[in-house]
Amino acid sequence: MNGGLKSDLQIEGAKFPSAMAPALHARINRFQLIFLIIGLIALGFTVLGAFVERRQFFFSYLFGCLFWLGLSLGCFLVTMIHELTGGRWGYPTRRFLEAGFMALPLMLLLFIPVFFGLRQLYPWARPEDLASDEILQKLRGYQNSGAYIARAVICLGIWSWMAWSLRRWSLQQDATTDAAPTRKARTLSGPGIVIYGLLGTVAYVDWIMSLEKHWYSTMFAVIVIIGQILVAYAFTVIWLTLLRNEEPISAVVSKSQYHQLGNLMLAFVLFWTYVSFGQLLIIYSGDEPHELSWYLHRIAGDWKWVIAALGLFHFFLPFYLLLFRAVKKHVVPVTILAAILFVVHIIEIYWQVMPAFHQGGLAVSWLDFTAPIGIGGLWLAFFLSRLKAAPLLPQHDPGLQFAFRYGH
Question: Where are the domains of the chain?
Fold first, then answer.
């Protein structure tokens, strides 16, 4: 690498601009405004729903928050994975991942309305349930409104600080050929993955598992985290396809990146299925009513169709097709599979949350659409604002020269 190079990146004699093309910048501005308007309109309808169907509002809002927050956290985890492992797949997608996890402070703000609906959401927060349930009374020292809010703020605050640090060092690396910023990112990423696993376990026990009175599973948070990583990979494939013809990404993206990302999606499809089925098998074998109740709520009535969709589109179809190298090396089929996995992950979060409210069977509300669309509109607008704030390809990363020395 040229030691005197400051504003441009050079790989095998090719020079890449450090600023986004004006035409692409203008298109991103246009879509950012569209997403912002859609988000504000949808959230406006959602707020009206809070006065009409108060309990439905909080369940729908929690569902929307958990999906988009999970996408940000998935981008955060995948970035740390790439910092530790390297690989050609990570450099053209790095800025998408960074823009995704930089939305964590926004999600902290958007999560605040959930704090006002704890009595609507959680049995441990309702005095009538607490008074009649001995187990909830024993857990009151841990499961209470103050502790819930404190743990949520601490978890989201720590994740936001770690994400901000990774982004700051990435931008610092753009301005220098000294590898010190990248070394700092790698140093944080190792313990960062462990810290996220610990905090994620705490958070998802609070946010999802405690929606049911007595249900618990030591593997539930693992299933949630694996799903976040999978949806982050799917998200990066979609954006890589959308911008694959734009400079400087067009100069480095090839079938190799799609093949690697397809392999990673296949790996986490298998991992998610293995852990999910393992949890089901252990609970079914144990035959304990307080454990089985969680699944009984989620197969009642029309929820069976949701289970069938998850089985088909979250495992069987992507598993079968991603086994073929030809599928993974072609843009259209692997992007379609990524889009399917992205959409079906929304359904998975819905299936995890909503049966606690609709225990008799599936009942879809209009708020189930306006809440995630509203939150998603703001998330995407913020995502695009961070995406255009940095070069599309990392500059001066010490692994970049080696990663692209072969395969072109």
Answer: 17-399
